[in-house]
Amino acid sequence: LRYSVSGLAVGVGGIVAAFAIGDVAAVLLGIADSFLSPSALFLGTVATATSVGLTARLLSERKKMGSPEGVTILAAAVFDDVLGIVVLALVVAVSRAQGTQTAAEWSHIVSIGAKAMGFWIFFTAAGLLLARRLTQLLKKLHSMTTIASVCVGLALLVAGLSEMAGLAMIIGAYIVGLSLAQTDIAYELQERLRSLYDFLIPIFFCVMGMLVDFSAVKGVWLGAMVFGLAGIAAKILGCGIPAWFTGFNLRGAIRVGAGMISRAEVALIVAGIGLSSNIISPEVFGIAVSLTMLSTLVAPPLIVWAFQGGSGLRVAVREKPEEEIQSVTLELPSAELAEFLVSRINRAFRAEEYFVHRLHTDTPTWQIRKEDISFTIIQDDRRVILNMPVRYQHIARFIVLEEILNLSEFLESVRKMQSPQDMGTELLKGAFD
Fold first, then answer.
1. Tens digits of per-residue pLDDT, 170-187?
2. 365-370 and 373-380: which strand pairing?
């Protein structure tokens, strides 16, 4: 939220500049006849796509994820994704309208575009407003596997409605994902669907590669290189200039621009939609793929170079007040007992219908979430650290205290057990007969 203004400016700037430069480059290179031809519109849309997965991994490795530039890039990626899907919706609607109508019938094209935007706005608003109520109903199924299956079915249903409305299927599926991302079952859904994701992603990239016709691209390889470089420059300028106007210096603006140039799956999906719909030719598809490949190769070394040096801010950013977090540290006699207590605490929260999941960190860390309530538990050797928002601290304190009392009773009952020596003698009796 602190960098949301910068992120919005960077996301919008990158979308506008990339689309404009991509569209104009398509005409100047002779790929399209006019700025409103389907080929030019689709190449402009391909140029807008941003994939910050590669950037995020590089920033994480260099401990720059929490830097002002890193947070701004991630914030801009959120706006970039949403705006990019909106642009795709409009371009698909206009391109399909042009395929069935003459160029002069603008009223029909505008009508199709308005219907596409109406579909997008209605289903997005409905999804965001009804997501929590929907998850409350889904929780009554009492099986995360079943819930995940229902959510996949819902995504396919809205994707089909999107296709019927004249949009791309990815738009409907994206709306469902965007809506469910706001709920407390989001992480559980990701974990349940990860195997499906891992299975389909290689197939997707394989099919995209098979669609490339190198014999068709051979004649326009120079134009493909120029278009790729133009797409990279568009993101650097389109994202870097708004970053400079929102408090970053030249170094910081270049860092933000460099972090936004990578394209991957979304760009390929857009190009694949155009090719499968016969809106663009194999030559244009190959040019779109070349932008993806070139930006993926250029991004890593450029990001590493850009993040060398000092601060990327012109002036120190005044910190906005954040929600106060209280931290309680419990010291236990051993790491094994600490691990046992954490397992009991997690089980107690699950019994209260909280979702508990292990974070991918070096130190064992769990996030506990239910609707807007969120806690974090960290086990650091013999210490158990509980981080909790002040306004919800009483919930966490009572649950943890109850588990500590239960643990104390459990340990007391263990002391009253038969001595280990006697139990061992009983177990070994007759073992060597």
1. 778 888 888 888 787 888
2. antiparallel
Strand, coil or helix: 357: strand
The structure tokens 């972090």 sit at 259
308: left (phi over 0), alpha (psi -120 to 50) or beta: beta
Q: Which amino acid is at 239?
A: C
pTM across the whole model: 0.63
Which positions ≥6 away from 106 have C-beta within 8 Å? none
Residues β-bridged to residue 386: 328, 377
Tell me the three state secondary structure of residue 2: coil
pLDDT digits (tens, 9 = 90+) for 377-401: 999 888 999 998 888 888 889 999 9
State the Cα–Cα distance between residues 304 and 294, nearest whole angstrom: 17
Q: What is the residue whose two structure tokens read 């004649």?
A: 219
Residue 160 token pair: 């089909």
Does the pLDDT of residue 102 top 50, yes or no? no
32, 26 Cβ separation under 8 angstroms: yes
The C-alpha atoms of residue 36 and residue 98 are separated, in whole angstroms, by 10
